[in-house]
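Structure tokens please, single chain.
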Amino acid sequence: MKQFVVIGLGSFGISLAKTLYEMGNDVLVIDEDEEEELVQAMNGLVTHAVRADATDENVLKSLRVKNFDVAIVAIGKNMESSIMVTMLVKELGVKYVIAKAHNELHARVLYKVGADRVVMPEKDMGIRVARNVFSSNLIDLIEFSKEYSIAEILPIEEWFGKTLKEINVREKYGLNVVAVKKFNDEIIVSPGAGL
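Here you go.
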């Protein structure tokens, strides 16, 4: 079990916090929710939910964020707060910091102040949906770089009834097959050419 602190309770932060908690992790959420309703609603959905100003270094110290494995700065539209909190959690000793950016310039600044990883959920999802719409055989895609990605695809009709060796995907398409999902939902990892 890892310990995560999620700062900012927009839809991205809420989804992330709830999912991490459901996966069995210890999750603290922090938000400056003026109404306190949002923070209250998170009680029971995560380990701890706190209404506080995460741009205040003393608040972060009192919550002992330095003891968390990962900090996720999911602050909404306030770029200044996002940048300040990213810098503070890194300076306080959080090992790995993920920050949400709104554009490329914001992403560059977040990296400069200490983010280990920057995500742009709207942009990333837009790219994934566009690729899925473009290729009817593409189910999902995870891009590691421009050269490397993992894709889940449906087999094309000409592959039916053939082995991986017969299809010869490496030579024909430049692909390496890392797993095969059979019709009964059984997944075979590192399948041999005879499959």
